[in-house]
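User: Show me a protein chain along with its predicted structure.
Assistant: Here is one chain, sequence first, then structure tokens.
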Amino acid sequence: MNSLKQFFKWLFKRGSNNISGLISFMFVFTAILFFDYNLVRKNPLLLIPLFFTLLVLNQLIESLLGKILGDKNTEIGFGYFVLAIMIITGVSATLN
């Protein structure tokens, strides 16, 4: 039971505005591009495991990149972080 609590605490921890968080968002957005949404249109309940999988993928990539980057994982200002996310979303939307 304790490990389940630790897993959910890790999964829903508040993300920090650093380089690893930005790179993990880029990976998740590109993963969303490759998903077939016709499955969700036929069965909307598949959206729940999809959302959960994307959360786990995001946290896993962010944790791994945070350990790999170490001291070079610097904080990014909130405005720049949001601007980078908007640019990534815009580019991914135009590619789709």
